[in-house]
Amino acid sequence: MPEARKHEKYEALVRACRELPPVRTAVAHPCDETSLRGAVEAAEAGIIKPLLIGPEARIRNLAASLNLDISKLQIVPTPHSHASAAKAVEMVRNGEADAVMKGSLHTDELMAEVVDRERGIRTARRISHVFIMDVPTYPKPLFITDAAINIFPKLEEKADIVRNAIDLAHALSIQLPKIAILSAVETITSKIPSTIDAAALCRMADRGQITGAVLDGPLALDNAISREAARIKQIASPVAGDADILLVPDLEAGNMLAKELSFLADADAAGIVLGARVPIILTSRADSVRARMASCAVAALYAHALRMATTADIGRLAG
Hints:
The protein is of the alpha/beta class. It has an eleven-stranded mixed β-sheet with strand order 3-2-1-4-11-10-5-6-9-7-8, sandwiched between helices. The radius of gyration is 20 Å and the shape is globular. The chain is 45% helix and 17% strand. The protein has helices spanning 3-6, 8-17, 33-44, 56-65, 81-93, 107-115, 155-171, 193-206, 221-225, 227-232, 251-264, 289-318; strands spanning 23-28, 48-54, 74-77, 99-102, 128-134, 142-145, 178-182, 214-219, 245-247, 268-274, 280-281. The protein is built from twelve helices and eleven strands. The protein folds into two domains: 20-122 and 276-282 and 295-319, 3-Layer(aba) Sandwich (Rossmann fold); 127-272, Isopropylmalate Dehydrogenase. Strand 1, helix 3 and strand 2 (48-54) form a beta-alpha-beta unit.
């Protein structure tokens, strides 16, 4: 596959952001090269307007050592990483930021502030993570959820994970996403609990408890992404072979699947956390520049969608 087309799905996401104003993003503790450079590059691309939260002298010295120009960026001074996480969440609560980006602090440290019952920014939804994979051999972006937060989700939690992914798909202009609920087999059996959950989730969709998408499962991975595999196994389904979203049985399965695609199939993995008041960008030192930029683009598009939904709700109330 030509290099120009290899990652065209991510490039399309970044292009979509050029029509929108940059999203105010609270960058929590950008005190290493990956996080600071990622914020600066996303700002230069016009995707986000970063608010750099952390020890000011440390951030400025790091920028100078990396030859990064941060003269036009706002720095919000804090003494340490815990204070940076708390300040990022506070800025969201105060309406000063529309997204959060993880810097050089532990994910648990940031998420503890996000989910705090008194000071946090949680909603009624279960918080979940979505990888938006750019797989060169698959014709469209492939979502994998949840591979980073919920370890062994129960049925009700899986329903929220699905709802979060549907909202993200809509924000990325996928009007009716196709969701494959993964297991090891395509038949329902009490010996494999994930097949029972898959059947229940499909029934929930039939009854209107989950809307905005087409669900099918249980499906094995090959049937979810390969039309030929589905044909051979005689699986008649609008989802089989054409999935937009893969709902994995648990974190272990999802994490292994995402990393297998990254390291064996030359895929990039953008990551975003949903279910809070604003999107949360989780980047890794192993991420490519392209993946970091895509994570910011996905968060920006989702933040704009949230803002439009809130404006519409206010309009309905006013009417």
